Amino acid sequence: MKINRNYLSLKENYLFADISRKVAEYMTSNPDATLIRLGIGDVTLPLCPAVTEAMKDAVDEMGIGESFRGYGPYEGYDFLREALCESYKQKGVSLEADEVFVSDGAKCDVSNILDILAGDNVVLIPDPVYPVYLDTNIMDGRTIRFCDATTRNGFLPLPDSAVRADIIYLCSPNNPTGAVYTRRQLAQWVDYAREQEALILFDAAYEAFIQDPSLPRSIYEIPGAQSCAVEIGSFSKTAGFTGTRCGWCVVPRDLTREGVRLHQLWMRRQSTKFNGVSYIVQRGAAAVFTEKGRRQIHENIDMYMGNAKIIAQTMREKGITYFGGDNSPYIWLQCPEGMTSWQYFDVLLETAGIVGTPGSGFGGNGEGFFRLTAFGSRVNTVEAMDRFKNLLSC
Fold it and tell me: Is residue 393 pLDDT above 70, yes or no?
């Protein structure tokens, strides 16, 4: 028996495991400290009433013989897939229900989709970006190239025709930088992918936080994208499903490579390796798209984006360069006084009791930057920024 030695090329620990370890060590030495966590992008508001009511009704259904359901469809129940298609329609995007696959979250989809793609594909990944993109391709031993996201391009890199790529990862709004591509910028990526006969894996997990109506919330708003892009979405941050788990993946029927529909391959993969998301969870997810659900979800998003404004205002008052916060729940700030991102992590933890995320954990270009999230409670966000303002070195 031989192991997959590609795993030995990974960093020893996942970024957030390192953060958890350092926080645990700090709390052991400072048991009375009160920490405010603005690091990991977990939500704090509960599931909205429309969702929990739908889940309770679904639980009752499962307790009655006539309405009990066993194994569900691998690709998701029609009622949720159709609700997702209707939500895309409101963005000006036309999809068929069978092009939408319900999953247990975006993190799984961005890695599982690689099962249907050959290991000798060249992958293009922005730097900095969500670590899962990089790690899952290292696990498969693919050749990886990076496109630099820096202050010079507003952390929104554009394609270079001289660079060859087969698989392209894009995340907009971006995690961790909060930057959002315009229609014109995304059109450049679509043109590039079509010229290269490449595939764009478009992570739209944070699209619901976009406030500017001129900005695209789906790559399929760009002409030609359905022939070169798979889009991945999530209920985690939009509707608080981080502990409930539900997302979706769109694989258009027009998307073919080497004469084969990727839709066909993805369906075969899912039916072999995935038993689907529970009926109860899918009923809760479908409730997000009801009139009541939309209103309640919008209220939650408004609260988080209010937190983002509070954090951004503090950055401006302190004279700190930052990105994001206007169309994204993330604030990406430049570490002061030339500190590294881990040094700044230690300063905030030890002198203010604030936990954030070091930018270097998202890639080499993240060094010298730091991510704060707006997913805390309003009380904790205000308290954290009060502490932040009192730090002389920040």
Answer: no
**182: exposed, middle or buried (Cβ count in 10 Å: 0-12, 13-18, 19+):** middle
* Runs of H (alpha helix) within the chain: 15-29, 49-62, 78-89, 106-112, 131-140, 183-196, 236-239, 262-273, 279-287, 291-318, 341-352, 378-389
CA 127 from centroid of its chain's CA atoms: 15
Q: Of 387 and 393, which is predicted with more confidence?
A: 387
The CA dihedral of 127, 130, 133, 134, to the nearest 10 degrees, is: 50
pTM, two decimal places: 0.96
Angle ∠(31,36,41) on CA atoms, nearest 5: 125
User: How high is the pLDDT of residue 392?
Assistant: 60
Distance between CA atoms of residues 69 and 340, nearest Å: 53
Sequence-ordered list of residues with C-beta below 8 angstroms from that of 353, at least 6 positions apart, any chain: 33, 34, 35, 36, 387
pLDDT tens, residue by residue, 57-99:
999 999 999 999 999 999 999 999 999 999 999 999 999 999 9
Q: What amino acid is encoded at 80 in this protein?
A: L
